[in-house]
Each structure stands twice: as structure tokens, then as C-alpha cells.
């Protein structure tokens, strides 16, 4: 299989370059398991599906730690038939075992409950695309059932779902949605926005 | 049908709020045909599928006109079965007439060739998701054939396709990919990043 992400960091400051460069060391613990390539639009991460969201979490928390309004935007994918197989993307054991919907929701909720808090509050929204599936809305609705029980569910928006909370459980919720709600061989994509330190958020009632 | 976008503007400057507010008047010519709602993460545009990309183009060109490194990120969707029908989204005549692949490519190329230049050079990348289709990769490959002939094709990247050129033909190419490569009743999503004034782009050979 092939799994990875195209991700971008957007610090809303004149000093966006040092904020981005200063956060990159947060990826160091992952570098031996990932292929990482950067151009002027995004950074490609290719690696095991279970580590994509932890890597993005650590990068984003580091950048948001500057206090600047910062957004991470990412396109996350697994199982794309147009991409070559890559040994580097072999999922961790257990990933491919799909139980009943009830079991998967329970496993996902346990993982979110065990997520370490980071002390960084974030708002996120994402869209979930199960591709090549004739009844794709069934998988989307099953995933939404999990999200509503996750403890970080914000609200349903047009075209996406909003999450609010500490970056730890928010990114774990995203990881579970990505990992557990489609078969291992499925082609799945997830389109993600995560924001911290927004002045608009502070102004919300 | 229901069509629209969740879009966000990211000006990489301390003055990001005035850049965003200053660009919003570019949406004025579209307001009578759109429902527009903003929260701290994104702005929702709901309206006719053929006007989504022109509206985003005008907004982005206005924001990038400040000279600041600015990114527009958007999730664009049509035909989602989970959304209500909306009269406001009725497509313009001709939208639902799908000819052969060759005819569609020719129509799309004609539209891109007629696109007005804006004087603003942009780089874009996007992913195209035909949902609920058993042979979704066929539609993706057909769309890529058009993109390669569009005149603004940059390169294929993992998970997405890159476009480079003037904002006029680039946004028209995106619009054609969104409008012409799936039936009118299909559920289709497109995940978009557009960038201007990047110092990394200037440093490219």
C-alpha cells in the first residue's frame, strides 16, 4: 500500500519562515520512518498510516507554540491505486483487523481516551472521502457516529466536520477516523484544516 | 443538487486581518447568487457550481494583490447526498450535457483558452475525488488527460496535481475539472491549495 500526506503550515506573521523552520525539528523523531520532500507549496510525508497524524500533531504544536495564529492544511491518503506500493508504508500490526462497527467505535474511543494532552487548544475541520466504494455515504455516516462520541466533536458543517479541543485527542480522533472506518485495501483520502491562536476564535462567545 | 465550498485565506503577515477584510469586496458581484457564511475556520460559499471558481479567483487575486505571500485553501463539493437540494445551486444551462471524453476535453480546453488573464501568477495543487463511483480512477485519469493539455499543467505530485500560471487560466482549469469530468448527478469533491508571492517560489530555479 501507499500512504502519506501533502501538508502545509501557514503562520499568519511576517516571520512565517522562521516559524516554519523552527518547527521542523518536531519531525526528527519520525524521519527514519518517513520519506519527506518539500517544495514551495507543501511537504510530502510518505510513511506508515498510523504515524501520519502524530507527526503532523507534533509539527503543528511546535509551530503554534510561537503564539502566532497558525494553520496546518493537509491532504492525507492511503491505498491510492495510482501510487506504487512502498515498504515504508507497511501499517503497524492490528491496523487491518476490522471488527463490527460497534467494536471499531469502541476501539477508536479507547484510543482517543488514551491520547496524551499537549496543552495546545486547536480547532479542526476535515472531510473524509472513501473512494471506489459504491455505498460511500454508509462509511461516512459510521465515521460520524464515532466522531460525535469522541469528546472533541464540534459540529457538522457543510462538506466537513468540525472538532474542538486539545491537539492530543483532536489529532488522535482524526487518526482513528483515517485508520478504522474503511478496509485496509480501500482508497481513502482526508482533507484537513487545523487552526490555533485565531483572534476570531477568541472573539467567539 | 447542492454545490459549494469551504474556503480560507491565509495571508502570511502580521496584518492578516486587514488583508482578508480588504479582499472581501471582491465577492460583492457574487453575493446575490450565493449564501456566504464565515466562522473562525473558513467561509462557506453555497451557490451555482459554475461560479464557485470565478468567485474564489477574484477573492484570491484581490488578497494576493497586497504582495504578501498568501494562500487560499478550499474544499469544493457538488452533489453530496448528505446535503439538501438548494435552488440557489441550480447549474447554468449546458452544464449537465456530457459528451464523449474527447468532446469534453475540447470544450474544457476552449474554456481555458478563453479565460481572461489577471496579471497574477499563482501556483496551485489539487486533488479530485469522484465519490460513489465504482471505477473512480477512470474519471481521475480522464481529468488528468485534460490537465496535461491545459497549458497550466505543472506536474503530477503524490496525491495531487500541480498547476502553474496566471490565475485566470489556472482557476478556469480547476473549474473545468470540477464541472466536466463527472455526471451532473455525481458526488464530487475537490481539495484545493493556491499560492502567490511565495519566497520559496522565487528561489526556484
From TrEMBL, chains A, B:
Stretches assigned to the Thiamin/hydroxymethyl pyrimidine-binding YkoF putative domain: 4-83, 122-200
Signal peptide: none
Protein name: YkoF family thiamine/hydroxymethylpyrimidine-binding protein
Pfam families in UniProt: Ykof
Amino acid at each position: 500500500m501507499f500512504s502519506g500526506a501533502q501538508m502545509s503550515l501557514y503562520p499568519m506573521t511576517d516571520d512565517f519562515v522562521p516559524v516554519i523552520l523552527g518547527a521542523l525539528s518536531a519531525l526528527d523523531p519520525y524521519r527514519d520512518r518517513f520519506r519527506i520532500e518539500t517544495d514551495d507549496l507543501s511537504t510530502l510525508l510518505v510513511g506508515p498510516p498510523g504515524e501520519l497524524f502524530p507527526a503532523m500533531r507534533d509539527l503543528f504544536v511546535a509551530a503554534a507554540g510561537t503564539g502566532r495564529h497558525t494553520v496546518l492544511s493537509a491532504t492525507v491518503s492511503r491505498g491510492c491505486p495510482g501510487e506504487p506500493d512502498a515498504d515504508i508504508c507497511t501499517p503497524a500490526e492490528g491496523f487491518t483487523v476490522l471488527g463490527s462497527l460497534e467494536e471499531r467505535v469502541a476501539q477508536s474511543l479507547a484510543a482517543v481516551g488514551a491520547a496524551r494532552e499537549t496543552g495546545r487548544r486547536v480547532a479542526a475541520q476535515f472531510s473524509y472521502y472513501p473512494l471506489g466504494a459504491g455505498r460511500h455515504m454508509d462509511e461516512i455516516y459510521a465515521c460520524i457516529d464515532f466522531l460525535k462520541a469522541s469528546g472533541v466533536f464540534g459540529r457538522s458543517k457543510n462538506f466537513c466536520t468540525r472538532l474542538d479541543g486539545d491537539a492530543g485527542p483532536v489529532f488522535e480522533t482524526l487518526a482513528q477516523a483515517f485508520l478504522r472506518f474503511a478496509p485496509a485495501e480501500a482508497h481513502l483520502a482526508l482533507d484537513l484544516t487545523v487552526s490555533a491562536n485565531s483572534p476570531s476564535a477568541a472573539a467567539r462567545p
